[in-house]
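Let us begin with a simple case.
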Amino acid sequence: MTVSKILLVRHGQSAWNADGRWQGRADPPLSELGERQAASAVTSEHAEAVAHLWASPLKRASRTAAVIAAGRGLEVRFDARLMERDAGEWTGLTRDQIEAGWPGFLADRRRPAGFEPDDAIASRAFEVLHEIAAACAGATALVVSHGGLIRVVERSLGGDAPPVANLGGRELVASAGSLVLGDRLLLLDPDSVEVTAPRQL
């Protein structure tokens, strides 16, 4: 039986992570710290095993992947199905702005117009993850995506889904057409660079 591993991780800190803004499909770049986080990931123990690399095309993920690819001698393949959840009318807003504009929504777990539901994210995420698992049979793939997508995948597979740190994520084990949750992971050295976990709404 051929077993593949997928390391599904969040991008480095973005400029909007640093500002506390909900990004959704907006496309802010990595912050200066995010660049350092990506560079730290190059030499992580997890990265040493990576043979294939995929990423969301959004800048914060594509740049993270590009830094890792350059350091590990890999090519990056991009897939729009790995993009973050569309946050609809909340794109670019801080928590305080959301509370002011939509009183009670966050506490009641209500969402605004245009907000992409979990089932839509799960559908596209699992479609591409199964394709990646088949393409890298017997090897390890690194997939640089987004916190919202990662947590939907975790919940869909029956796991806990606490907030995801930048360059943090989850190992997935692929075998016989199924994906199984492995451990949470961190793809950087906390002794060499600050670990950030932007608040996820």
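The second case is a distinct protein. As before, the sequence precedes its structure tokens.
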Amino acid sequence: MKSGNIIAGLDLGTTKVVALIASVEPDTHIINILGIGTAPSEGLKKGVVVNIDKTVKSIQIAVEQAELQSGVSMQEAVVGIAGDHIQSFATRSIISIPHSSREISKTDVLRITEDAKNIKLQADRKILHILPQDYIIDGQDGVTDPVGMSGVRMEANIHVITALQTAMQNVYKCVERAGVQVKGVVLEPLASSSAVLDDDEREVGVALIDIGGGTTDIAIFHENVIRHTAIIPVAGNKVTEDIAIGLGILNNTAENIKKEYGHATVESILHDECFMIPGISGRSPLEIEKNLLARIIGPRMEEIFECCFEEFRKSGYINRLPAGIVLTGGSALLRGSEDLAMRIFGMPVKLGLPSGHLYRGLAQEIENPIYSTAVGLVLHSLSMDADNNSKSYDTIQEESTIQQIVENENPSSPKKSMLKSLIKFFDDL
């Protein structure tokens, strides 16, 4: 297999590291999932690296597993980033159209994005994504695709996402010390959304809630445009800590019983059974009721959803989400989570996971919310390759210059519909 056909994603989570290796069939552009590796995440806290050596070791273990299963070396990967250091804000960029014809070109659209990069940031922050939302041409607002329109002045409403420079540097350092080159860095809720949301949901209005181990990540879409992102520093680890404290047990035991017996609501328990957990240091085993466990888990899950509700309210899109909410991430697997979210938000809620029928190889294995981010990172890697092949421009790559944009303006022939959809999604990022 040619190395050029290989794409990979690396999800650096607070509780686990996931490495995913895939290949792309050159004619059909179908993605083959070749290898999946997971390892406990020992060196991250709330999505941020706190121990370089432990993080490198976790990455190496996950990558080695994926390589062993796939028989392919992971030379480079798109890496996910999260953490409560992530910040986002809205800004507006303005340019004049210099052409005598006053017809807006692709270069003008890219120029206005470049202009947004000139915004002043604190010295310790770095732009992660610049996401144009819509355009205003000579006062006419609501324009989603200005190319080909006539105008003298173009403005763009832009969603800017920034990260702490040192946090990003530590991510690069860990991945590269583990023997993998960083192909790109993507905000994790944007990656997850590409794996679990469809075009119709993003068009009418939908919110993604990705409940991970250390952070809960939010992405709100409307009219196929990202409208709001947020990182909440309360997630599955807090649920585990509550169980450990409430039952007087070790954290790893609490994590195991959360996964096996956990319910987000008492109402979701059909039969209130008891289960046994081992005592500490040779003490007698403890008998615990599922009902009691749910009463410990429920309040923390309510807190997570209430924090999300507040972010929805701040976004201004809380009443413009006909497709409701899509839950993903490991803690979304807690029984009763969908019902609890539906009660708090008052809108439709469903569990989101990568759809195996879109893939080949280990397709069934990835049909799990814990792999949403990793699959999305692989999709982003695919879109980067497709952009390079079609001579298009990736606004996420900050090293690109306007001269390169001009040189690369002519696209090649269109790809298959799924690939085009993915490329458009990530180009919009």
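The mean pLDDT is 88. The radius of gyration is 22 Å.
Keep these points in mind for the review questions at the end of the chapter.
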